[in-house]
Amino acid sequence: MDALTETATIGKVSISDTGEASKVITGPGVTVTSWEQNGGVNVMQAATRVTAQEVNGGRLTTEGDYTITIANANGGTLKRDKDVVTANTLNSPSGLSETTIRKAA
């Protein structure tokens, strides 16, 4: 996608790089069925509902106005757009984890 007005449908985004060298960015016109990442510094925007999101490592920032049906945060850093991205179910890892909740401005 070259322009913000373009649209595309992606069945699954899979990022296997476990380091921070890779960077995947989807735009607001993209329909993503599922997102799985093991690393990288990534940004997910979507046009509609994302069925599944799994973060095993790296950093993922979610931006836009859409819903994630199931989000699995197994590791790494997951930063959500606090005003508009909704996760129906958020599964976090067993054991020690850190969750930060801030009131929207």
Instruction: Describe the sheet with the most strands.
Output: 5 strands, parallel
SSE series: EEEEEEEE
Strand content: over 45%
State the low-pLDDT regions, or none: none
Backbone shape: globular
For the record, the count of structural domains works out to 1
> What is Rg?
13 Å
Number of E-state strands: 8
* Overall mean confidence score, pLDDT: 83
Separation of termini? 32 Å
Structural class by secondary-structure content: mainly beta
How many helix segments?
A: 0
Placed side by side, the strands forming the largest sheet appear as 1-2-4-6-8
Please give a structural write-up:
- This protein has 105 residues and is an all-beta fold.
- It has one domain (8-91).
- Helices cover 0% and strands 47% of the residues.
- It has no helices and eight strands.
- 23% of the residues are buried.
- The mean pLDDT is 83.
Chain-wise SSE layout:
Layout: E1 8-15, E2 30-37, E3 41-45, E4 50-55, E5 59-63, E6 67-73, E7 77-80, E8 86-91
Parallel strand pairs: 1-2, 2-4, 3-5, 4-6, 5-7, 6-8
Task: Quickly list its features.
105 residues, mainly beta, 5-stranded parallel sheet, 3-stranded parallel sheet, 0% helix
Quick description:
The protein is an all-beta fold. The protein is built from no helices and 8 strands.
